[in-house]
């Protein structure tokens, strides 16, 4: 039951983090004129500040940390050791940094896709896989076997 409270606490902390950080990032972006210019590929009609992803990323990391720490210290759950989560966080950082670089240099889609594909592949082959799919209307659970790796990556 405590895990549910920890989940809601982490969601709340993430929300508060995002609400506090994102306006500051927008202010900095306006001050430094860090804008995503309008062009024929964009859906926005006026210059839009860059770097909003930094606030979202911070909120995500802080929320996950709060959830992990609350469960670890208050329930003494034998959660996944933090060392085993390092590939997951390394890939998150790599994709995030790619997004920041893209904000300022407009990376080609193939390069962004390659980083995401490589990151997903590393995660899949280090054990972070979707191995089963449940069908809630029938109660059936489908074991994906080796296809789980492909399913996870894509």
Describe this structure in words.
There is one protein chain. By secondary structure, this protein is mainly alpha-helical. 64% of the residues lie in helices and 8% in strands. The protein has 5 helices and 4 strands; from the N terminus they run H-E-E-H-H-H-E-E-H. The chain has a two-stranded antiparallel sheet with strand order 1-2. Strand 3 (132-135) and strand 4 (140-143) form a beta hairpin. The longest helix is centred in the first third of the chain and has 31 residues, at 2-32. The protein is globular. The mean pLDDT is 87.
List the helices and strands and how they pair.
Elements: H1 2-32, E1 35-36, E2 48-49, H2 52-75, H3 86-105, H4 109-125, E3 132-135, E4 140-143, H5 147-153
Antiparallel strand pairs: 1-2, 3-4
Helix pairs in contact: 1-2, 3-4, 4-5
Distance between the termini: 33 Å
Low-confidence sequence ranges: none
Q: What kind of oligomer do you see?
A: single chain
Strand content: 5-15%
Kindly state the number of beta strands: 4
Class by SSE composition: mainly alpha
Number of helical elements = 5
> What is the rounded Rg?
19 Å
| SSE run | HEEHHHEEH
Mean pLDDT: 87
What is the share of helical residues?
55-70%
Largest sheet: 2 strands, antiparallel
Strand neighbour order, sheet with most strands: 1-2
Which shape, going by the Cα principal axes?
globular
